[in-house]
Specification:
By secondary structure, the chain is mostly helical. The protein has a single domain, classed as Na+/H+ antiporter like fold. The chain is about 75% helix and about 0% strand. It has helices spanning about 5-20, 20-25, 30-35, 40-55, 55-65, 65-90, 95-105, 110-120, 125-150, 160-185, 190-215, 225-250, 255-265, 270-280, 285-310, 315-320. Helix 4 crosses helix 10 (about 160-185). The radius of gyration is 20 Å and the shape is globular. The termini are far apart.
Amino acid sequence: MLQRYLIYWLVLSSLVALFWHEWIGPAAWDPFVSSKPYLTTLIIITMYMIGLLMPRREVDEVFQRWPLVFAGAGIQYTAMPLLAFLLGHAFQLEGDAFVGVVLVGCVPGAMASNVLTMNARGNTSYSVSLTTAATLLSPLAVPVALRLALTGQEIEGPGFLDSSLKLLKTVVIPVTCGHLSSRWLRDEWQPRLKTISSTTANLSILWIIAAVVGLNRDSLWQIQPGIFAVLLTLNLSGYAAGFTAGGGIRLNESMRRALTLEVGMQNAGLGAVLAGEFFPDREAVAIGPALYTFGCMLTGTLLSQFWSRQPLVEQTAAASREGPTRE
């Protein structure tokens, strides 16, 4: 229920955070602002739960078909930071808005893409493998991409070693520990574990985004209008880059659908937390990742629904070779 209607819960929780003082009262305790010190802990819990959700078979397949998996991750870490950099300049974004858009382009893909890939009749196993590889590569890929994209900017990005260690602490170690924990548990516990982990991860992301909205509710009304256009363009361009590159490396259509959704749907919830970690004195940097969460969930859902009604090319070709079936 929570996963299926996540976009609606995102809108509702963010609206509550945005209008908290208007609806509850100006003197009321603000849970969203008060939770700021705990956002990093929440993302660690989220990543641990994501590790628990990673099926053993899909994780093993990362190593079995590593050329295609790491090629897809390479496409994501090349296309999205470059697109974010170019679009930020094209739309003449400045300061925190520009940095926020660049950060969106640099983070790894989100687990939501795995669910949407399944709905889109794509290759879910390949999607999970891509998310796993991008997550494990993030301590190296994200600092490099972020530093290159911010070259020449007045705002200095985080140091390479510092940002790598933070990504290792908040992303890779929790995911790895979560996955190892799932391997130690009995198979009969897996269905219940999947439900608990999925619910916990989604609730954490919902609160993180709501907290970012609450922390920036005053500045949200003054953000540069172009940021909405650039984030939507980045999202759609990411889908186009993933689908085009998938054809270039000769993926079949089910795998191209997986790569398309993986590239376009960034882990913007993680990006919102990393904004606070990397740029602690510039809370407005987190606005771009928070807004992107809404956009990519909406467009990803629409794309997956469209593809769910479209037969796969390889299935159509196989049916034509078999000819009409006999009764």
